[in-house]
Amino acid sequence: MVTTEREYVRSLRYIIDHYFPEMERLDLPQDLRGKRSVIFGNLEKLVDFHSQYFLKELESCCNHPLRVSHYQFGMYALYSKNKPKSDALQMFHHMDLASYLLKPIQRMSKYALLLKDLIKEVTEAQEQELSYLRAAAEMVKFQLRHGNDLLAMDPGQHAHGKLIANPGEGWQIDEMFHF
């Protein structure tokens, strides 16, 4: 899990390092100016949380994985709510931006599966650890549902189209419209 968490943090940082600067380019299409938070949501907070806190906690628990318990994942619900807005604008590079932006949502689902597997491995004698794992699993499930609920309640605009970008090479919009 530590290895995949490190890769996850690298993927999130890739977005910040390679796509955030694109949002400052002078040749950025007018429809995208000032839309960094629409496209990327609270991605910077997710990176900070995972790199400064969660990854360090995982690394310190390498020999005792059951010590990983309840963490603040509430920011994922907000990220999930924003995802359809960023989906409306696809940027392509080696891996398209939509794939990168989907990683946080997929990661929460992976945490849910991991916790489910850990719960199966814990014996009843490890009552406290089992309690922590169950609480963490419920919290992750809640955040996934909460993200879906926020998404369902958002009456915001929907946009369709494709934004093609190669960092450093410019932008092109195909069939962009709002309704």
TrEMBL record:
Residues 1-150 form the DH domain. It comes from the Eukaryota. One of its GO terms (molecular function) is guanyl-nucleotide exchange factor activity. InterPro entries: DBL_dom_sf, DH_dom, Rho_GEF_signaling-related. This is Pleckstrin homology domain containing, family G (with RhoGef domain) member 4.
